[in-house]
Structure formats: structure tokens, C-alpha cells
Specification:
Oligomer: single chain
Shape: globular
Number of strands: 14
Helix content: 40-55%
CATH topology: Glycosyltransferase
């Protein structure tokens, strides 16, 4: 890919972030009456004002607005980041037991006080990003506190890894499901992936020896238990001894995990580990390239245990695929990864972006039609994947352009 195409790629991503994603989430989702953010909005912008409010949406929005405030500036993003932080601390934070509640009523009353570790990981991720933007040491202190609670109560000291769900008082819950769609088993890839993500960002600002050990341990868990070394896909669900309980393949998680593992190894700054994880990341990306793409250039959602493709396209899978393939190109120099990232971005623009009501469709079918029943905003639908992808893509393209045209100097600019 030449520099002109790279610049076009970057400009198109920037336009999408500035003209669609940011305006939608800045203006449509804050619940000024009850605090936090609305719990549900349809594809056509109809709001259920009494829908429950989930920790994942609220923590991810805190991360998103903090990341935008840090990289882009602007009073609106700054104000929204502060609003998101204040709301999360006022309504979701458990002042008695620590950590954050899983789900609230629309008016802020606690519906589910469970400490699902996936949710606590996003609390850490969001609080550290807010600290990076604001310098608020209280936010960093809370992130460190949650890390300590997870380490003391959710870690399996016998077989390694982390349990899925704990009660409010941090005792292991009898129901380990993250959601109704997940298996009731004590360990999952998804939980460990987002702990890895959170611990990576936390370690970037807090060089704690125990945290370093735990982050290295998470990489080892992926290498020794989660990654199928033959197929180069992540196993998804496990019993306590790490026996796989599911034969499905999640292409979105594979490609997302490839670059998050590499980012973790970068932050740890261990040359041998970084070389090993870099090779692993490229091999995972190559497996998705070979098996997970269709003729429309989108990424399939999943394959079942028999290898049959679930051909629908989910917005978060496309987001992570662009970043993951760019990362694989930067590590390997293999041009097909770069070209694939560009083609998937064009797929996003053509099919995933909602040009009528704003933001992105959650899901489109094989023929490109959007699923009208999937919400635009929900406990699980937010701009964390899409917004982060835009920031990552621009940053990576800036670096590539500087390498190809060193005479232009520092090309990176505010997004």
C-alpha cells in the first residue's frame, strides 16, 4: 500500500470518528435525569427510559470519553468523561465491599450486586484511562483497589486463572455465567482476555511487581490453555482444570486477542517474551485471514463445533479485525494483512455504518442487510470497539507514514 492510500485510509477513519461516532454518543445517550447513561435505544432511536443500566456500557463509555479527551481534547469530550466518571462512582461503585455492581435499575437502585470479573476488568480499564486523561489519583487508587480484590478473591490458586462471577462480598458465585448466552462454567477466554487488557493498561502507569507477575501469568494462560496450538484459535469455555467445554470458534475474539496479547508483551518490555508473542499474534491473524473472511471482505461472527460458519457480521468483530490485521502487518510486513485491513474498513463504511440514524449497526446479515431488532444502545452495544479501533488505526497509520516519508517529521496529530 502506498502512502497516498494510507493517508486516504486515515482520513476516512478520522471522518467516521469525528462526523458520526463522536456526535452520536456525545448527544444521545446521557441520562441527565437519573445519572449515567440510558440503558436501551432501538436502531431507529426509540429510547426505553426504564431499561436497566449495565456496568459494561457505563464503564466502556467512561473509557471511550476519557480516551477521546486524552487524544482529541475538546470541551465536550472532557465534560462527558468527567460526567461518566462521577456517575460511575456515584451509582455503580460499591462503597461497602469495593468494586462495582453489575446492573442497576433505570433510577440507580441496585438490581444485581454480583461482582462479575469481566465487569470489574472494564472498571479498571476505564479508571486508568480516566487517570491518564485527568491526572486524578483517586481514580488510579480505585483501579488498584479493584486489582487487589480480584487477586485476593477471584484467582484460582490451584489451577491458575480467574473465576467468572463472585457475589457482592467477593465469595465465588454458584452461577458463573456472564450472560444468558454464555456457558455456566468457571473459566472463559473472554474473561481472561479483558483482564489481560485491563492489567496491561494498569501496568503502563503502575509498575507493581505483583501486577507484572499476574500480567505475565495471563499471557502464559493464553499460550498454555486458551490457544489451540494446532488450529490457532482460542478455546472459549473451560472447567476448573482448563479442559475445553466448547468447540466453537470466535473469529472476532481471535483477531482482537492477537493484538491485545502483543500490546501486553510490549508493555512488559521483555524482549524474549515479545518475540514469542509477536510470532503468536501473526499466526492467529493468519488463521483468521484464511478461515474467517468471506467474499464481501467482512469477518464472519463464528464457526460452530462442526466448522459451519455463522455468516452474520457483528460491528465489534469488524472493528477488531482492522486493528488486528494492521498489527499483523506491522509485525510481519506481509502486505495481504494491510490490504485486508483496508478492505474491511471499506466493508464497515458500506454496510456497518448507519447512514440514516447514526453510529453503526450491531449486526448485518450475509447479504448486507442490517438486523432491525438489534439495538443501537444497550448493556453490550457502545462505541468502545468502534471508537478504539479508530484511535488505534490512526495511530498505527501515522507511524507507517512516518517510516515511509521521514522527511515529513512527526505526522501524528490530534484526532
Amino acid at each position: 500500500m502506498n502512502v497516498q492510500t494510507m493517508r486516504l485510509f486515515r482520513q476516512r477513519v478520522r471522518d467516521e470518528l469525528h462526523n458520526n461516532i463522536i456526535p452520536f454518543w456525545l448527544t444521545r445517550v446521557a441520562d441527565r435525569q437519573h445519572g449515567g447513561f440510558i440503558g436501551w435505544m432501538s436502531n431507529t432511536l426509540s429510547v426505553d427510559t426504564q431499561s436497566p443500566k449495565g456496568l459494561i456500557l457505563n464503564a466502556r463509555l467512561l473509557w471511550t470519553f476519557s480516551a477521546l479527551a486524552r487524544s482529541r481534547g475538546g470541551s465536550e469530550c472532557v465534560q462527558m468523561a468527567r460526567y461518566a466518571y462521577d456517575s460511575l462512582m456515584r451509582t455503580f461503585w460499591d462503597a461497602e465491599c469495593g468494586g462495582a455492581f453489575w446492573r442497576l435499575r433505570y433510577d440507580g437502585q441496585v438490581l444485581d450486586a454480583t461482582k462479575k470479573i469481566y465487569g470489574q476488568a472494564f472498571v479498571i480499564y476505564a479508571l486508568v484511562e480516566y487517570y491518564l486523561f485527568s491526572g486524578d489519583t483517586e481514580a488510579l487508587g480505585r483501579a488498584r483497589q479493584v486489582f487487589g480484590l480480584i487477586d485476593n478473591h477471584a484467582r484460582d490458586n490451584e489451577f491458575d486463572g480467574y473465576y467468572e462471577s463472585l457475589e457482592r462480598n467477593w465469595t465465588v458465585s454458584p452461577d458463573q455465567r456472564l450472560s444468558d448466552e454464555d456457558m455456566d462454567v468457571p473459566k472463559s477466554m473472554n474473561n481472561h482476555l479483558h483482564l489481560l487488557e485491563a492489567y496491561t493498561l494498569l501496568y503502563s502507569v503502575w509498575k507493581d511487581d505483583l501486577l507484572r507477575k499476574r500480567l505475565q501469568g495471563l499471557i502464559s494462560i493464553f499460550r498454555n490453555h486458551i490457544l489451540d496450538s494446532q488450529r490457532r484459535h482460542f478455546r472459549l469455555f473451560f472447567d476448573p482444570q482448563w479442559n475445553s467445554q466448547c468447540g466453537r470458534v470466535s473469529f472476532g475474539h481471535d483477531i482482537e486477542g492477537s493484538w491485545l496479547l502483543h500490546r501486553a508483551a510490549e508493555v512488559l518490555n521483555h524482549p524474549g517474551l515479545l518475540a514469542e508473542v509477536s510470532e503468536m499474534a501473526v499466526r492467529i491473524a493468519r488463521a483468521v485471514y484464511v478461515e474467517g473472511l468471506d467474499g464481501w471482505n467482512g469477518v464472519f461472527y463464528e464457526a460452530d463445533a462442526a466448522g459451519r460458519m455463522i455468516t452474520e457480521k457483528h460491528f465489534w468483530c469488524q472493528s477488531e479485525a482492522v486493528v488486528g490485521f494492521l498489527n499483523a502487518y506491522q509485525l510481519s510486513g506481509e502486505e495481504e494483512f494491510m490490504e485486508t485491513a483496508w478492505r474491511i474498513w471499506q466493508f464497515i463504511e458500506k454496510y456497518q455504518v448507519d447512514k440514516v440514524h447514526g453510529d453503526w449497526f450491531w449486526k448485518v446479515y450475509q447479504d448486507g442487510r442490517p438486523d432491525p431488532d438489534k439495538p443501537k444502545v444497550s448493556e453490550w452495544k457502545c462505541p468502545y470497539h468502534s471508537g478504539r479501533a479508530c484511535l488505534e488505526i490512526m495511530h498505527r497509520l501515522d507511524g507507517m507514514i512516518r517510516l515511509l516519508e521521514p522527511s515529513v517529521g512527526k505526522y501524528t496529530q490530534r484526532v
